[in-house]
Amino acid sequence: MTDQPTTNPAPRPRPTRTYPTGRRFNIWTSIQTVISVAVIVATLLTLWTPSNLFSDRMLDEMLMALQSEQTQPAVFPTLTPAPRPVIGIVAGHWGNDSGSVCDDGLTEADTNLHIATLVKQDLINEGYSVDLLQEFDPKLFEYQALALVSIHNDSCQYINDEATGFKVAAAVSSPFPEKANRLTSCLVDRYQRITGLHYHFNTITPDMTSYHAFNEINANTTAAIIETGFLNLDRSILTEQPELVAQGVTAGILCFVRNEPIDNQPVEGLSPQEP
Predict the structure, then answer these.
(1) DSSP secondary structure code for residue 39 in this structure
(2) Are 209 and 170 in contact (CB under 8 A)?
(3) How far apart are CA 254 and CA 189, in angstroms?
(4) What is the DSSP letter of 104?
(5) In 3-state terms, the chain is what percent helix, strand and coil (to 5)?
(6) pLDDT by residue (tens digit) across 164-195?
(7) Which of 30, 103, 118, 220 is the most buried (most CB within 10 A)?
(8) Which of 47, 93, 68 is nearest to 231 (CA)?
(9) How confident is the model over 73-129, as pLDDT tens digits?
């Protein structure tokens, strides 16, 4: 047998170990971490020593803070109530002159103001905001409200046996005649029902239909004037039962602003006449 030469196999290359980038050991990062932990621990040991960390005072304050968070009531935003709708009431002649004057000194201005004040309170009780205005109140200029009613009374002198009852009128040239007519209709219907007085429509004068306030207030404010009676023949109800008179006016206003049904309509087509 022939001996064959012995050959050494070629050496295999040693595999190179690789490390994921995120796991590569970094001595400087380790040193920074150790230093940071040391600083934090040193700070805690300086500030929170056993004498104060576990003291009664520290524990009491922690307990009080915890209880305060648990018992503190929830805070809700304050609700602002919506403004109440406004109604204007003019006390005829108030702040200007006396109006009609009776022989015993009773004046129309005082009677008007008394009734107007009662109407104001009635409307407030119904949930409305009310402006009680003088005859030539500066507030009347461009005044805006759900409605404006001016309260007056007729002559204290005896005219005839027919001079009794009430009168209601709106502006002749109202920009919204259907609303003006509804206000007068409500006033006539409710006032007549409550007081029992007669609607004296045939003595409505141009002074009523051209009442100065009609031209001063804002065009969107529906207005009317009412003469609640004659100071002569209707004096007893006007002076002895003013609450009843005020209820009649209030009911008429509420009928309008609440759009309540009405049975009677004011007589239309009559020209204003002098009494």
Answers:
(1) H
(2) yes
(3) 12
(4) T
(5) 45, 10, 45
(6) 999 999 998 888 999 999 999 999 999 999 99
(7) 118
(8) 93
(9) 666 666 666 788 999 999 999 999 999 999 999 999 999 999 999 999 999 999 999
Q: Indicate left, alpha or beta for 95 from its phi (over 0: left) and psi (-120 to 50: alpha).
A: left
CA distances, 259 to each of 31, 95, 183, 198, 253 (Å): 86, 33, 10, 24, 10
Q: Which token pair is 212?
A: 């100065």
How many whole angstroms separate alpha carbon 242 and alpha carbon 105?
18
Higher pLDDT, 243 or 49: 243
Cα(63)–Cα(55) distance, rounded to whole angstroms? 12
Domain ranges, ordered by start, for the chain: 86-257
Mean confidence (pLDDT) of the chain: 81
10: helix, strand or coil: coil
**Other Cβ atoms within 10 Å of 183 Cβ, number:** 24
- Domain spanning 86-257: which CATH class is it, in words? alpha beta
Cα separation, 227 vs 243, in Å, equals: 16
Instruction: Scan for tokens 């000194």, then name that residue.
Output: 105
Closest Cα partner for 151 from 166, 130, 137, 172? 166
Instruction: Read off the pLDDT of each residue in 257-261 and give the average, rounded to a whole number.
Output: 96
Q: Is 166 helix (H, G, I), strand (E, B) or coil?
A: strand
Indicate the residue type of 182: R
Stated as kind and residue range, the H or E segment containing 203 is none
